[in-house]
Amino acid sequence: MPSKQFKIPDTIWDNKNISPECKEIYSYLYSKGFDRTIFHFNIGEIQKHISITNVGFRNNLKILEELKYLVYKEYKQGMYEIHIY
User: Fold this and answer.
1) Which residues are bridge partners to 40 per DSSP?
2) Each residue's pLDDT tens digit in the chain (85 positions)?
3) Which of 26, 20, 51 is nearest to 41 (CA)?
4) Sheet with strand 70-76: strands edge to edge
5) How far is 72 from 38, CA to CA, in rounded Å?
6) Rounded to whole angstroms, how far apart are CA atoms 22 and 26?
7) If you write DSSP's letter for every residue of 16-81 in order, what string do you get?
8) Which residue segments constitute the domains of the chain, with CATH numbers given?
9) Which of 66, 63, 71, 72 lies closest to 43, judged by CA?
10) Hey, what's the torsion of the CAs at 7, 11, 14, 20, to 10 degrees?
11) Rounded to two decimals, what is the model's pTM?
12) Side-chain half-sphere of 59: how many Cα atoms within 13 Å?
């Protein structure tokens, strides 16, 4: 059975409405949730790599959700359930 190939969609890189920070966040989330339908994410994991607050992270997730790249739910402060398409 062939496995799913790890490839971030080119449409996100070509989209000028998405900030570089948001693209970096998406690529990090995509790599963490690769080959899973739903995964749980703690904001502290990405804060080791990117200087970002919880509010800034949530705003970037809202942009990605509006553009139909993912769906998220914050179930506790700093804890997210994310579904990447």
Assistant:
1) 81
2) 445 555 666 777 888 888 989 988 888 888 887 777 788 888 988 888 889 999 999 999 999 999 888 899 999 998 999 998 7
3) 26
4) 38-42, 79-84, 70-76
5) 9
6) 6
7) TTS-HHHHHHHHHHHHHSTT-SEEEEEHHHHHTTS---HHHHHHHHHHHHHTTSEEEEEEETTEEE
8) 19-84 (1.10.10.10)
9) 72
10) -70
11) 0.81
12) 8
Q: Give residue for tokens 């739910």.
A: 73
Task: Let me know: does 38 contact 74? Beta carbons within 8 Å.
Answer: no
Residue reference for tokens 């989330």: 29
| Angle of CA points 14, 18, 23, to nearest 5° | 80
